[in-house]
Each structure stands twice: as C-alpha cells, then as structure tokens.
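[Meeting: bench + compute handoff]

Bench side (C.D.) handed over the final construct sequence. Compute side (W.E.) agreed to return the predicted structure before the next meeting so the bench team could plan truncations. Sequence as handed over:
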Amino acid sequence: MEKTIERFQFIFLVGGLGFLAIAVVVTGVVTGNALSDLPYTSLDEISQDVSPYFVALSQQYPEQFEKYYPGGPTPANYRAALNLGR
C-alpha cells in the first residue's frame, strides 16, 4: 500500500513538472510568434505624436503638470514621460 502511494505521488510530481515545462515552452513560442510581425518603433518615433491622454492630463492638472513637464504637452515632454513609464 505504501509503495502504491509513493508511486502515485511520484507520477503526479513528474507529470506536474512535465506540464510546467511544456507550458513555459508554449508560452515562449506563442509570444514570439505573436510579436515577430510587429515592426520595431523607437521612442523618438512614438513621441512625435503626443497622445490625447497626455494633453488631457495637462488640462486636468495644470499646476502639477507644469511642475513636472514645463512647457506643456510637447513631444519632448511626452518622450520623457514615456521613458519614465508613466
């Protein structure tokens, strides 16, 4: 009886580790395939078109926005905000 339980636990351990390994590989392959067709865009190219959300933020909180991004919602300030990840 004890050997049966040990064998049962071992099978589930090996099966669980096997499924984990398969999940890691599949996740990497699916993500790689999904992102491989997207063109690379630099931060300078993205920041040329200032987001309407960035402009709305400058209008909703003018004092705080001017404190952290002097000059308003310019492409340079938008690039700085994107670089910070905000």
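W.E. noted at the follow-up: The CA atoms of residues 56 and 73 lie 9 Å apart. C.D. will use this when planning the next construct.
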